[in-house]
Amino acid sequence: MLKRNNAIGAAGMMVAMALLVACGKDAGGPPPPPEVGVITLAPRVIAITDQLPGRTTAYRVAEVRPQVTGIVQKRMFVEGGEVKAGEQLYQIDPGSYRAALSSAQAALKRAGAERIVGLPDVAPTIVSMLAERAVRA
User: Fold this and answer.
1) 109: domain range?
2) Contact by Cβ (8 Å): 96, 70
3) Higher per-residue confidence, 31 vs 133
4) Number of domains in the chain
5) Phi and psi torsions of 81, nearest 5°
6) Residues 27-58: pLDDT tens digits?
7) With left for phi above 0 and alpha for psi between -120 and 50, is residue 69 left, alpha or beta?
8) Domain membership flag for residue 13
9) Using CA atoms, how far apart are residues 37 and 11, in angstroms rounded to an integer?
10) Distance between CA atoms of residues 88 and 68, nearest Å
11) In angstroms, rounded to a whole number, what is the distance separating the alpha carbons of residues 125 and 131?
């Protein structure tokens, strides 16, 4: 234990001597002034921009859908463009409409032919009614 105390005492003495030696030296005066840079300011216009991620949505959306049956052959408007009331939007295959028109015209001709054929049956009835004065001319 005595050796340990001697070692601690010797270390303490060395530290004290180092401090006394450092205090005795003159540092050579005040430290030199620090180096600084100098710039000249001039007013100028600088655009400040920020790029931020985001999404936009339309506040008003209109879906354009054809309200007739048939095969759409051509779209007459530009996606996202403006359309006016009454403007043609789609061109539809006229084949099915031509077939329906031909069928309706044939049915009309058939009905007209049946009417003409049925007139001779109606004529005697009208004559007899006129004879009875049931129908006034």
Assistant:
1) 68-78+86-137
2) yes
3) 31
4) 1
5) -85, 175
6) 567 888 889 998 898 999 988 988 888 888 88
7) beta
8) no
9) 47
10) 13
11) 10
Nearest to 61 by CA among 80, 42, 39, 38: 80
- Closest among 98, 96, 101, 103 to 72, alpha carbons compared: 96
How long is the chain? 137
Torsion of CA 123, 127, 128, 130, to 10 degrees: 140
**DSSP output for 26-51:** ---SSPPPPP----------------
With beta carbons less than 8 A apart as the criterion, state whether 76 and 91 touch.
Answer: yes
- pTM here is 0.34
Residue pair 137/130 in contact (Cβ under 8 Å)? The answer is yes
The pLDDT of residue 82 is: 86
The answer to whether residue 50 sits within a structural domain is no
Q: Would you state the structure tokens that stand for residue 50, as one six-digit string? A: 């920020």
